[in-house]
Amino acid sequence: EMSASLVGSEMCIRDSYVSNRFSGQMRENIEKSMDTAVEICEMRVEAAVRVSRNASYIPQIKESWRQYQSDGNRLGLYEKVTTFLEQMYRYDSSFLSTILYFTEEPDRIYYSYSSNNYSSIKEFRSQARDSVDQKAKEIDTGIGWVNEQGHLYMVRNIMTPVYTPYAVIVMDIDKDSVFQSVEGICLLYTSPSPRD
Asked: Which of 19, 95, 149, 181 makes an SS bond possible with 37, Cβ 3.0 to 4.6 Å?
């Protein structure tokens, strides 16, 4: 009886050791996986920020606006700006939509959206416009973020050579794409195992 009790207690100690060791390895795996997932998200956000600069650095927007100020051809402005947005951002999986407006005509928006995401444009107009306008006034040459009604908007001003904003570009971030790696880790470690 005494030896049976010792064997039982040794098994208990061994099971506790194995369980603690497994828990430690699992915790270490989770931490490494999360660190990697966060790094991937950071890289995707940095890539989105880099791509957003195209509107400032590629002269098409600036030239289109100058031409419009000179000739008043609104259709020409619309075509040039929309074509630019389509070419630069429509097929970028980081964005549901990209919206641009000029500070002198803030009610006219120009936009591009990825397939089946026109609702992103409507929701911007009805729910986020005021918050985005406010953020644009605060950020000068920086990047601003607006979290509104489930949308995450990246906001930046497009500046004249003397650093006066003449347009605002707004990207509705596709959170499923940009933050996919973190969500995957969370699902992996929070879903019940098949044995449960």
From this structure: 181
